[in-house]
Write a structure and sequence with these properties.
This protein is mainly beta. It has one helix and four strands, in the order ββαββ. The longest helix has 7 residues.
């Protein structure tokens, strides 16, 4: 596996999961900093210019 340049680390592809869903992976550094775990529930909200993803428990 090759090492990415620092400016390319946060560039991700959208992949199809099943028939009707899409997924985007997050960098492992973000995962560790946020303390998120597998199968954790998150809120996805449409905002101007993109999306916002938050932990379900945060206010």
């Amino acid at each position: 596996m090759t090492t990415r340049k620092s400016e390319e680390k946060n560039i991700r592809k959208i992949t199809k999961v099943g028939k009707t869903s899409l997924a985007v992976t997050i960098p492992i550094e973000m995962h560790k900093n946020l303390g998120w775990r597998e199968k954790q529930k998150v809120k996805v909200k449409r905002i101007k210019g993109g999306i916002e993803i938050k932990d379900c428990r945060s206010k």
